[in-house]
Amino acid sequence: MDFDLMITSFPKLLGATIVTLKLLSGSLFFGLFLGLFFAILRLNKNILINKFAYGYSYIFRGTPLLVQIFIIYFGLGQIEYLRTTFLWVILKEPYWCAIIAFTLNTGAYTSEILRSAFQTIKPGIIEAGKSLGISNKIIFYKIQIPIAIRQSLPAYGNEIILMMKGTSLASTVTLMDLTGVAKYIISTTFKPIEVFIVAGGIYLFMTFIIHNVIKYLEKKYSFQQ
Amino acid sequence: MELLAFGKTGWGDELFYATLMTIAVSITAMLVGFCFALIFTPLKLSKYKALNFVGNFYTTVIRGVPELLVIYLFFFGGSGAIMYVASIFGYYEYIEINAFITGSMAIGIISGAYSTEVFRGAIQSIDKGQFEAAKVLGINKFVQFYKIILPQMLRLAIPNLSNVWQITLKDTSLISVTGLVEIMRQSYIAAGSTRDPLFFYSFAAVLYLLLTYVSMKLINKLEVRYSRGY
After folding, report:
1. Closest to A168 (Cβ–Cβ): which among B69, B80, B212?
2. Taking CB atoms and an 8 Å limit, are A63 and B208 in contact across chains?
3. Between these two residues, A86 and B108, which has the higher pLDDT value?
4. Is the torsion defined by CA of B191, A79, A101, A88 positive or negative?
5. Which end of chain A is more exposed for a tag (fewer CB within 10 A), N or C?
6. Residues of chain A whose C-beta is under 8 A from some C-beta in B?
7. Enclosing domain of residue A33
8. Is pLDDT of B1 > 70?
9. How many whole angstroms separate alpha carbon B6 and alpha carbon B10?
10. Of B44, B41, B40, B42, which is closest to residue B52 (Cα–Cα)?
11. What is the mean pLDDT of residues B48-53?
12. Alpha-carbon distances, residue A56 vs A31, A51, A104, B20 (angstroms)
């Protein structure tokens, strides 16, 4: 055990954690909106719209995240037309490519979580709203969405943790996030175990925090029995 | 399309063998995972706090740390660890373990953590009366497990195990960082030499979709088989 290495690499890894957290919060923020959008499309009665939303979530859940990042980072740059548009400003940055890939990925999972949450809402609740003369829009925003959020909290907590682990793939497109820096230190010092303990410890600590925050929110928003 | 031709002119046969490699790694990793689950599930269900702790430590750490980090640990630390063990037995030559073994061990350990959770959940949801009835009838522990608990457990575990299989299959793409030539690595090579990354990575995505689709169909059949009588 090389404790000196563990101590000296800790600040470097902690600095890289900020990149990881930025990637995580960015992709979760955009992914939540994308997921909500596609969940609403999934509940649409029009078969075409429904199939489109299903296809989106199927493709992004059925392929590895690594493939998705590579298609966006290496693949899209190949299209000549894209290079001339303003999108190129975003797509040439590995940081934004990673965020786009993570957003699309987490959006697919989030849409499934929200869809099942919407479907578990008892029809009686919506009917009660209707019989009280509340408009459809208000039923959706004030009744369905709050219940769906509460229902989906445990599953969404898992998704946040999965996404946090997913951000480690950003290191494959030259971003120096926590895993990227850990790999760099391992490959220069050849002390994998020490670095793994420190980097893994930081990841576990973040998992621990996320887990407890979700647990707290679950308790806070649970139904009054 | 000529990019996908079989033979020397295209990448068809290379990608075909790469797909076989992905399947081979996934199955090996899944089996390695079952071995780990077989060890750690009883620990998690044990009466003793210390054994519980070991089981929980394994599943928590592996499920809380990125897969890529675990793969790097195995890739950079694997042969070092083997050489250390060998040196105890008086063997000091350089040992290199191949990428297939490192990769399937790393993914297997990850897959095992998920399988452990699935098995634990399945066993815990079996009615306590079943265990007690078996005990009262004087059935020994071995027969009790294989003939009474296991069949009921599998029915509950198969849907969740199919999720574990999907995760394992997708995780194998990460082994490409160690240089094992599976779908992802082969696409990377092909994309590099033809300068057509969009096509090859999209094709890789299609291959993965195909694998997940076919395996889902097969698992559904298995699910029907184990749900007989329900």
Report:
1. B69
2. yes
3. B108
4. positive
5. C
6. 58-59, 62-68, 70-71, 74-79, 161, 164-169, 171-172, 179, 182-183, 186-187, 190, 192-193, 196, 199-200, 203-204, 207-208
7. 3-220
8. no
9. 6
10. B44
11. 93
12. 13, 9, 9, 27
Helical (H) or strand (E) element with B222: helix B197-226
Instruction: Assign domain B2-226 to its CATH superfamily.
Output: MetI-like (1.10.3720.10)
Examine residue A113 and state whether it is found in any structural domain, yes or no: yes
Owner of token pair 């709203």: A129
Q: Is the pTM of this model over 0.95?
A: no
Instruction: Quote the pLDDT of residue B46.
Output: 87
In-domain check, residue A85: yes
Where do the structural domains in chain B lie, given as residue ranges?
A: 2-226
On whether residue A225 sits in a domain, the answer given is no
Q: Residue A143: inside a domain, yes or no?
A: yes
Instruction: Please list the alpha-helical segments (H only) found in chain A.
Output: 3-42, 47-62, 65-70, 80-84, 87-91, 94-119, 123-131, 136-138, 145-166, 178-189, 192-220
Which pLDDT does position A225 carry in this prediction?
46
> Counting every residue, how long is chain A?
225
Judged on CB neighbours under 10 Å (0-12, 13-18, 19+), A124 is exposed
- Quote the minimal CA–CA distance from A33 to chain B in Å: 25
- Whether the pLDDT of residue B142 is over 60: the answer is yes
Mean pLDDT of chain A: 90
Using the beta-carbon criterion (under 8 Å), do B66 and A166 form an inter-chain contact? yes
Stretch B3-12: mean pLDDT, rounded?
75
Question: Which residues of chain A neighbour B69 with C-beta distances below 8 Å?
Answer: 168, 179, 182, 196, 199-200, 203
Q: B57: nearest CA in chain A? A: A204
Q: Which of residues 86-145 of B touch A (CB under 8 A)?
A: none
Whether B191 has its CB under 8 Å from any CB of chain A: the answer is yes
Domain count for chain A: 1
Residue A174 sits in a domain whose CATH number is 1.10.3720.10
Listed residue (A182, A146, A101, A118) closest to A93, CA to CA: A101
